[in-house]
Description:
mainly alpha, Cytochrome Bc1 Complex, Chain D, domain 2, two-stranded antiparallel ribbon, 11 helices, disordered N terminus
Amino acid sequence: MIKKEKTGWKKLSMVVVAILVFAGCATQPTAQPTTVNEAKDKTASGATGAINLDSYTPPSMDKVPEGPLGESIKYGHKLMNETSTVIPEYTGNKLSCSSCHGNAGMDATSPLTGVTAVYPQYIPRSGKVLTIEDRINGCFQRSMNGKPLPYNSDEMRAMVAYLTYISTDVPVGIKERPWIEKNDMKSVPQPNVANGEALFQKSCMQCHAADGSGTGPSSGPALWGDNSFNIGAGMARISKAAGYIQRNMPLGEMGGIKQGSLTDQEAADLAAYILSKPRPDFSKKAQDWPAGGVPKDVPYEVDSSKKKQ
Length: 309
């Protein structure tokens, strides 16, 4: 379907070309840009005019073009929201891309807006330059605990088409997306797992269930066990999990806790409790960071570290 529309694809991707797993309790929030005040260049020229790089808003799904390209974009959007339901043969759990990247990557939890403009790029964990297709398959194998999509499949083409659409007008090769606030706690305090358990019972289990099995891929995804992300996912690192929790959880007030009100200590305690629970393994984990530089909170040993011993 994409091949027949090659010309339309090129027109859309002249400016933008070529995923990790939590979601919030209750409904995903309305899409909104994350604003920062540190960008040196306030605007950039796009196909439809100047865009504000401090606050980027992707085009609405209501404006998807008609025809084969539009149908592929819509299919990609559906795959983002209903991943494990639509293509269960490629997923090993009950999550969706939107479990982590809320509203199909268009809200502020973990935005994918503009992502195709920053790929290809070098990824230290892989030790090589990855395309956007490689990055998608990394998430399928780690966060979705599944297997990679064939690169020439309708599904892969649809996901790339959708991600390119929500990157419209973002300059290709941009080094940073200044409207993106990363989910990362730079300095994680010594966690208290017991306190994390108490916080979980107070404010999290209503949506994620007392046993962490979840209530749904968007309403409250599984946080541990067979239907959650595996040990190779970025969210298996406490700095990433704590950062995500602190920025986004809970989406609605739960147990007297409001979104964004958790302290560093509370977020770290919750992350430590969740990550202390069993989850699937990742068979290729030892091959990560082949050039070294393994972050301290990676919860497994890699071959490059063994060589230095």
